[in-house]
Write a structure and sequence with these properties.
The protein is α/β, with parallel strands linked by helices and 558 residues long. Helices cover 54% and strands 17% of the residues. The protein has helices spanning 37-45, 74-82, 114-121, 132-135, 139-150, 155-174, 178-198, 204-216, 218-233, 240-254, 261-288, 293-313, 320-335, 337-382, 432-447, 466-480, 492-495, 522-534, 540-557; strands spanning 2-10, 13-19, 24-28, 61-69, 90-98, 103-107, 110-112, 126-128, 390-397, 409-416, 424-425, 454-458, 484-488, 500-508, 513-519. The chain starts with a strand and ends with a helix.
Length: 558
């Protein structure tokens, strides 16, 4: 149940704080006062799109918050628990929209996405707008209303449909023509043979490039290595080895006079060992520098072959081994394609059967629900000034080509407004008043299948008046016995039946205009009902009539 709503800097609202009670609450006011502004604010709290125009002129941001009692909202509590947003028996939702159009939302102090906010909002409040009758003629809306009334969960049918379509698409992609398959097989076998003959290795291109560089410069390498070797250990006294030996000899003779030279001698001994090892290494290296022209040609040719095949497959040479692996896998898949196709075909057939079974079960439930819906709406029509009128849900099976995620039923609402008249589609109803009454009857009845305890009706009683208006009010009041009902109305007959009454007014100081929401006392309700009855001039007779209406409504509620 909605406990309270706070609005800051929204449109022409600077500040509104409203507390709501159980039962039926009405919002009334002069034409143009903004009676629907609280409903619009609630819509934004629950995830409807907002923009910079939402923010009151001159303000930095608009803020909305709504508190809900969750004790009778099992679905909402379950959603909050799954989302790690549960805070007990109440839920506080806050929405902030900046003057630049940026939007943020919070549930119990935790930031959430708009998608999450909408999902939660759909479990908290059911809003029926004033223009609903205009979309009531759409078959999609009619199907949703029937399912809503029956509490049908179409998720199983939608899931089975998606599984079927996914497998069918996979089968279509896998079903190459025989000629295409044979052509691809020939090409794959040729390319695999070509790669297997080359037998590439991932590390080979880098190793061959290094060897190619060494072979191309073998002369320079040999000459330089010989020179370095001579500098290290040539028989000439000027070589590094000879110089180190001379230094060792001199310091050894001096060590007997100063023992501190021992450490220096150790360094020279280590250096002499390193020089000897470097000399041995260079001698071995010089022995490997065999400028074999045949090896050089082989390396050049091998590298050229790897690079040529890599260009053909549009990859780097080191990737060729993986190309071979992928092609072998594709070849195996194509060879087994016929067997895979048979397996996929069986899966597609099984998925289709599962979808049809789910759709048939949904269709059966819809037909059972339609009988109850027909009787309930027809009865509601009688109570809304359409005596003898009847309502009928027409269900016809779709052609197989038009079956879809919503099932196998074509659903259309038919009505007969007068006795003996053949039922006609809603779209053919000429009277706007009749369509408004039908819309109200269907919305109220459909809500009986809803598990959401808060219902909002935004001027759904437009187009009716007189005795019918009182019938509308009674139906909404009856609904308020088991639900929390918020109703924006211009009808005194409806307003008089509410347990709680707010007046929406537009006030100005000559410079700034703002909207206010005021909960009315009993005396103030009399004045407001009188205004709704009598217009600009309120007479004593009108006031007496208003008191009489409120007294009668109180007796009916009791």
């Amino acid at each position: 149940m909605l406990i309270g709503l706070s609005v800051r800097d929204f449109a022409i609202v600077d500040r509104i704080d409203v507390e709501f009670a159980a039962g039926m609450t009405v919002l009334t006011g002069e034409t143009g006062a903004g009676k629907s502004i609280l409903i619009d604010a609630l819509g934004l709290v629950l995830g409807e799109r907002g923009n910079s125009k939402t923010v009151r002129h001159g303000a930095r941001r608009a803020e909305f918050s709504a508190e809900f009692d969750l004790r009778s909202l099992e679905d909402a509590r379950g959603w909050l628990e799954e989302s790690d947003l549960d805070e007990g028996d109440t839920c506080l939702i806050r929405r902030v929209i900046s003057a630049e159009g940026r939007s943020r939302a919070f549930v119990n102090g935790n930031a959430v996405t708009m998608q999450q906010l909408k999902a939660l909002g759909s479990l908290l409040i059911d809003i029926h707008g004033q223009h609903f009758h205009q979309s009531l003629t759409e078959r999609r809306i009619q199907r949703n209303l029937l399912d809503h009334f029956g509490g049908h969960d179409g998720e199983r049918t939608r899931r089975r449909w998606q599984e079927w379509q996914t497998l069918a698409d996979e089968l279509a992609s896998a079903s190459l023509s025989e000629a295409e398959r044979a052509s691809r097989l020939d090409l794959l076998r040729f390319q695999i043979d070509e790669l297997e003959r080359l037998d590439p290795d991932p590390s080979e291109p880098a190793e061959l490039t290094t060897e190619q560089q060494r072979l191309r410069n073998s002369g320079r390498l040999a000459e330089g290595a010989e020179q370095a070797l001579a500098a290290l250990s040539d028989s000439d006294a000027g070589n590094v080895g000879g110089l180190l030996a001379e230094a060792q000899r001199i310091l050894s003779g001096l060590q007997e006079f100063d023992e501190s030279l021992a450490e220096t001698l150790e360094y020279l001994d280590a250096a002499a060992i390193q020089v000897n090892e470097a000399s041995d290494s260079l001698q071995r290296y010089v022995g490997t520098l065999d400028a074999d022209p045949e090896r050089r040609v082989w390396v050049e040719d091998r590298l050229a072959s790897l690079k040529s095949l890599a260009r053909k497959h549009r990859v780097e040479p080191e990737v060729l081994p993986q190309v071979l692996v992928d092609m072998r896998a594709e070849l195996e898949a194509l060879v087994n394609a016929e067997e895979r196709g048979r397996a996929l075909e069986a899966q597609v057939n099984a998925a289709e059967e599962a979808y049809v079974a789910a759709a048939e079960a949904l269709s059966k439930n819809r037909r059972k629900t339609a009988k109850r819906f027909n009787a309930a709406v027809s009865e509601a029509m009688q109570g809304l000034g359409m005596p003898g009128g009847t309502f009928e849900v027409q269900l016809e099976r779709k052609p197989q080509s038009r079956a879809g995620a919503d099932g196998i039923d074509d659903i259309e609402f038919l009505i007969s407004a007068n006795p003996g008249q053949e039922p006609q589609p809603l779209a053919k109803i000429a009277s706007g008043g009749e369509l408004s009454r039908m819309s109200l009857a269907i919305q109220v009845i459909a809500s009986d299948g809803s598990r959401i305890p808060t219902m909002i009706f935004d001027e759904v009683d437009s187009g009716v008046g007189g005795g019918v208006a009182e019938m509308v009010g009674r139906r909404l009041a009856d609904l308020g016995q088991s639900r929390q009902v918020l109703c924006v109305t211009h009808l005194p007959q409806v307003a008089a039946l509410a347990g709680q009454h707010f007046r929406i007014a537009k006030v100005t100081d000559g410079k700034v205009t703002r909207t206010t929401a005021e909960r009315l006392s009993d005396d103030e309700r009399v004045e407001e009902i009188a205004r709704m009855l009598g217009g600009v001039e309120i007479t004593r007779k009108t006031l007496d009539h208003a008191r009489e209406m409120l007294a009668g409504s109180a007796q009916k509620r009791a």
